[in-house]
Amino acid sequence: MPKPTKEKWKQIAKTYSDKWQFPNCVGSLDGKHVMLFCPNNAGTSFYNYKGRHSVVLLALVDANYKFIAVDVGAFGRNSDGGVFAESKLGTSLATNTADIPADTPLENGGEPMPHVIIGDQAFPLKPYLMRPYSKEAVSHNANKKNFNYRLSRARRTVENAFGILSARWRIFHTDIKVQPEIVDNIILCCCCLHNMLRNDEDDNIFLQDLPNGVPDNFIAFEGIRNNSTRAAFVIRDKFCDYFSSENGSLPWENQ
């Protein structure tokens, strides 16, 4: 998949803002463990936290359920946070080489804010990666609870993309019986074909048939403890404040 240009990132951000009301978002991030039979002479390299053998599919998805970037092939035993940190996507974001657009205000006349990707508790909070507040943080704070709702709402795109992928390609419903290097190529091929075939009509059909999102053989990442910089916390708090402001809140949130 070609690396997005600055203009492409801007288009993705606009669509997330228009369609999911999450401004400055340039993608939704998630990872799944794709199950396979124990490879020859692999030892415990592919043995994941669920007690099964897998390779990891890490994906960044746009607002229309298309894959922007995918990273395939990490050992199932690797920590989920480490998989992202060591991926090309994680490295390019951390080193500011992903050609992400400059900071942009969330509203007219507002303070410039960075463009971010969004993920769940499996990923660390970073200045470029927003994750939900903890359950403890939202228990007595309506604004933080609202932020989690907005992030979860926009993050459905990646879960739905995985659901559509698995509905189209039934190989993801069973343990794949080939060697890992071939599994990697199969997964990449399915992701590319998904982008080629994706259209709104098909999405509606597939999503209606996916009450649980993805099959059992797509195992979610395990949550990690949040160890983040102060800058990341400040950025998340500013998004949180905007989502609860007069200009940033949604009509139904105030009912």
Question: What are the key terms here?
Answer:
single chain, 8 strands, nuclease activity, two-stranded antiparallel ribbon, 255 residues, metal-binding, 8 helices, 40% helix, alpha/beta, 16% strand, six-stranded mixed sheet
Averaged pLDDT, please? 84
Number of helices: 8
Give the overall silhouette: globular
SSE class: alpha/beta
Number of separate strands: 8
Strand content: 15-25%
In angstroms, what is the radius of gyration? 18 Å
* Secondary-structure element series: HEEEHHEEEEHHHHEH
The separation of the N and C termini measures 43 Å
What profile does the largest beta sheet have? 6 strands, mixed
List low-pLDDT spans.
205-215
- Helix percentage range: 25-40%
Give a summary of the structure in a few sentences.
The chain has 255 residues and is α/β, with parallel strands linked by helices. The chain is built from 8 helices and 8 strands; from the N terminus they run αβββααββββααααβα. Strands 1, 2, 3, 6, 7 and 8 form a 6-stranded mixed beta sheet that branches. Strands 4-5 form a two-stranded antiparallel ribbon.
What does this structure look like?
The protein has 255 residues and is α/β, with parallel strands linked by helices. Helices cover 40% and strands 16% of the residues. The protein has helices at residues 6-20, 80-86, 88-94, 135-138, 142-168, 180-197, 200-208, 230-243, and strands at 25-35, 54-61, 67-75, 104-105, 112-113, 116-118, 129-130, 218-220. The strands form 2 sheets. Strands 1, 2, 3, 6, 7 and 8 form a 6-stranded mixed beta sheet that branches. A two-stranded antiparallel sheet has the order 4-5. The termini are far apart. Residues 205-215 have low confidence and may be disordered.
